[in-house]
Amino acid sequence: MASIVAPVLFIQCLLSILLTTTLAAPINITRETFRTCRPGDWVGIPADCCPPKVIKGPIVDFCPQHDASKPLRVRKALQCLSGHELKTYTRKLERGYALMRALPDSDPRSFKRQNAIHCAYGTGSFIQDGSTNLTIDIHLNWHFLPWHRMFVYFHEKILQKLLGDPEFSLHFWNFDNSVTATPRHGSRGCYKAGHFVPPMYNDPSKATFEANRSFMAFEPNRAVDLAFDLSQWNPAVGPPTFPNNTVEEQTRMNREIMHRSMITLANTTNFIGKAYRVGDARIVNPAAGAGTIELWPHITLHTYIGGWMLQPITAPIDPIFYPFHANMERLWSVWRKLGYGNDDPTDPDWLDATFLFWDENAVMRRVKTRDFVDLNALGYRYEEVNDASWIFFDNSTSPGAP
Ligand code: C2O
Q: What are the residue boundaries of the Tyrosinase copper-binding domain, all occurrences included (predicted)?
């Protein structure tokens, strides 16, 4: 008997190894992934941020459902808010954050727990089901854009719920905008270019302030550096050093880098980032996996702002993370509309990647990338702003362009 069973088992085992190693499959986060979560790291910096190992209650499939008879909510550009609108928005956001920070750590919607879930997803703390060493990461690969859209989406839902205002929209930091006084439909203009840190995030009296940032981020009239030296991204190599560019110099560099990341270098593979599926090992070198906008302006701005923002273990502790990432995903939508054959991947391993998030009712949701590619289906849109200054930037005349 044993002589027959052994070869059969061997063949079954071989088959399953062949199947799991040769058949690619989308990343899939499950109860098991949470159960096997273990401390991870970011460039060798240890991270201990696993959520509770047991997911209580059901996991409910997320299905985007926007009632087409209702208008889309609008996420607006922060630099274009003024007067009453700015006051109302600031007051709401402050109240939202006070309520979110007051939730106990046992509540997955608390400010702290939202940071922890980003940390777990971003430090190789989750292991691919059935593997002992292959981890899951949502940076430096093609999950970066959709995963962060999901993360900000649920953050906004939680704010809506805490505020009792289902129409509340999280506005965005239009950091790529270097045009002062953009005319808007109607009579208003934007008070300032977008590439300054939005004042409400730099005002120590506000809940949106964070003291743990690099000194550069606090200079109110300094344009942020989207072209920041990328070799300084790794906190393990020491604190970054900052150039001292004038606003004019910085503006030119920012336009150039946006043009490069969104157009010159940005075909679909380069823009979305490297494939990352079941069986793939974690990518640790940004240049080896990240899409163009994940490198510039994303990593560059994280580094430039510094403090908590310097690494995925802590980045969402700084409230600026959220309007910053809202603009990142707005740029994704802009990229799709630019032409040049730009389009999202059609690979099912991208579309069917499945993640788990707690929603505004602390219910666990199973979320697929394919449900986060169409903003309108999710019920919101971005205010139109002026992207022309970098779209039409003439790359050929830029000193130092590669
Ligand atoms: Cu998960 Cu801007 O980072």
A: 139-156
